[in-house]
Amino acid sequence: ARQAFKEEKEEVDKDLQHVGAVAMESVHHDLLFGLIQDHKDEVGEDEAPAELDAEEVGKTERRLQKMGFTPKQVKDAMDEAQTADPNAVLDHLVLHTPEELLPNAFKERKQPPPEEVLKASTRQPLTQPQQGAGARAPSAFLPQPVIMHPGTKEWKADPAEVAREEAARAAQAAPQAKGGVVGVVKPLNSAEEKKVGKLVAWGFDRATCIAALKHTVGDVDKAVLRLLAGVYPSHLKGPVPEGAEEHDEEELEELRFDERTALESIFGEENFRELWQQVGEVLGCEVTIEVQVANVRGKSKMTVLVRYDPPCQYPFSPPYLLVRCEALPGAQTLKISRALCQKAEVMVNGKPGEPMLYDLVEWLRTTVEKEAAAAKEKEREKKAAADRAAAAEAKKGQAQVKSKLDAVEEFAAKKVSRDAFAAQAERTTARLSKQETLEKQLEEARQKAMQARAVEKEREERGERGTVRVQRARACLGSQCR
C-alpha cells in the first residue's frame, strides 16, 4: 500500500511540475494529495470514460489548432480532460503544457520590476520636447495629456475651462483672414503614416482616416470599426439596430464558428483568414475571391472584410462589411461595399439567424462579373458603332475618290484627244512642209532645166552660126581656089 501511495504521489508530482511552483509544507502537501486521491475515488477513476461526440471533437480540434496548439496537444488534452468543451480543453492545455511549448499568444509577458517603473517615471510634462537624438515625439492622434503626480488628488475638469480650451484650439486650428498666418497641422510620423495607409488601402479618403484615428486615439481596429459603421447607408438599420433582441454570445459564436469552418473548407486556407482580437475571441474574417472586374484585363483579387464586434448580433443582424480591390479606385469599392451591406440587410430580414456570408460572397462575385460583362458588351457595342461610322466615312471617302478619279479620267481623255489632234496637226504641218520643200525643189529643177535648155539653144544657135561661117569660109576658099 505504501508503495502504491508513493507511486501515485510521484505521478501527481509529475503532473504538477509544469504548473507554477507553489511553496508549501510537507504536511499540507500530503493533505492536498489526499484530497486529490479522495476526489479520484469519488469520481470513479477506474470507470470507462464516456465516448465523446465526433462532431464536437472535430470542431474543438479545429478551433484550438487555429490558436496555435498542435493536433497531438489537443488530442491528449481531450483524452485527459474527458470532454470536448473547447473552454475546458483550453484551460487544461494552458495549465498542463510547458511554457516553451505554448503558442506565442499564451506565453507570459514579462513585466518590468516596480522599481524600474518608478525610476522611469518623471514629473516633466509630456508635451515638452525630450532631449536626445532618439527621443520620440508625442503622437498626433493623442489628445493633450493630463499629468498626474503621485500623491495628488483626482483631477476633475472644469466645464468653463474645457469650453475655453476648446474655443482656443478651434481658433488656433482655423485659418486667419487673407494675408494672415494659417494654422500649422502637426505632421505624422512613420508609424502614424503606416496606420493611415492601412485605412486608406480600404478605399477611405485620407482626411476621414485621420479623423477616425484621432477619435480612437490611434487604435487601428477601433478606427476600422468606426469607418465600417459609416459604410452602411443611413436608411438601413445596420449591424446594431435599435431595440434588437440580444442573443447569447455562446450561441452566436457557435453559429459563427460553424460558418467559418465551412468557409475555410470552401475557399481554402489561402483565401480565408480569421480576425482575432485576443486569444479565443474571433471578431470576423476575410474572404478573398478572384473576379473579372470591368475595364480590367484578366481576373483581379477582391477581399471581403467581415466584422461582428459586440454588440453586433450576427447572424441575427447584418455584419460590418467592406470590400477591397486594388484594381478598382476607392470610391468604386465603397460603392460596392454599400451595395453588399444593403444585400446583407435584405437577407437578414428574410431569414434571420441563418449564416449568409457564402451567399453574400457569391452574390458579390455574380454582380461584379455581370457588371464586367455589361461593360464589356457596352464597349463592344461602342467599338461596333465606331467601326460602322468609320466604314460609312470610308464609303463616303471612296465615293469622293471615285468622283475625283472620274474627273481625272475625263480630263485625261480630253488631254489625250488634244494631244492626238496636236500630233495630227504636226503630221499635217510636216507633210505640208515636205510638200513645199518638194515644190521648191521641183521649181529649182524646172529653172535648172530651163537654164540648160537656154544654154543648149544658145549652143545650137552658136553651132548654126559656126556652120554658116564654115560654109561661107569654105565657099570663099573655093572661089579663091578657082
Automatic annotation (TrEMBL):
GO molecular function annotations of the record: helicase activity; hydrolase activity
Domain spans labelled UBA: 190-230
Domain RWD: 258-371
Compositionally biased region (Polar residues): 121-131
The organism's place on the tree of life at top rank: Eukaryota
Region (Disordered): 106-137, 375-397, 427-468
Compositional bias per record (Basic and acidic residues), positions renumbered to this chain: 106-118, 375-386, 433-447, 454-467
Pfam families: RWD, UBA_DHX29
Protein name: UBA domain-containing protein
Transmembrane segments: none
